[in-house]
């Protein structure tokens, strides 16, 4: 298996980060009512040049495969039970120190908490309070979250100590 691309980030007051994986929730994060937000497509294509992009979802609406098959992402549908732990275990297998995680639901809480950078999304479906508290950053949309990665000085400005 080829080495994952790398996204290196130096944030003042923190240890340097060598990020390899972007792990995104689908519903409420990348999608509304099961429909992929179209403005994310060019961003995901660009970020896939720097990071391995994973879509990790419970697939509430059963539509994710129809919307992401043409994108450069690895799709993982998690089982209906113990979803919070399943998402947490997934990023642990990748190596938390190399992961950026983005989500909004309660089942994203531990994934965002354990990732090197956890970003909570408060968009159409809102955000679970515990997930918000476990994140490093809260932002109003997945589009804006992905812009933080495409324009990392924004990320640095928010997270510098």
Q: What does this protein structure show overall?
A:
By secondary structure, the chain is an alpha/beta fold. It has one domain (17-150): HAD superfamily/HAD-like (Rossmann fold), CATH 3.40.50.1000. Helices cover 34% and strands 24% of the residues. It is built from seven helices and ten strands. The protein has helices at 40-47, 64-68, 83-94, 109-114, 129-134, 142-150, 152-159, and strands at residues 7-9, 17-19, 21-24, 31-32, 35-36, 52-57, 73-77, 99-103, 117-121, 137-139. The strands form three sheets. It has a six-stranded parallel β-sheet with strand order 7-6-3-8-9-10. Helix 4 (109-114) links the parallel strand 8 (99-103) and strand 9 (117-121). The longest helix is centred in the middle third of the chain and has 12 residues, at 83-94. It is globular and about 40 Å long. The mean pLDDT is 94.
Task: Indicate the topology.
Blueprint (H helix, E strand, L loop, with lengths): L6 E3 L7 E3 L1 E4 L6 E2 L2 E2 L3 H8 L4 E6 L6 H5 L4 E5 L5 H12 L4 E5 L5 H6 L2 E5 L7 H6 L2 E3 L2 H9 L1 H8 L2
Parallel strand pairs: 3-6, 3-8, 6-7, 8-9, 9-10
Antiparallel strand pairs: 1-2, 4-5
Helix pairs in contact: 1-6, 6-7
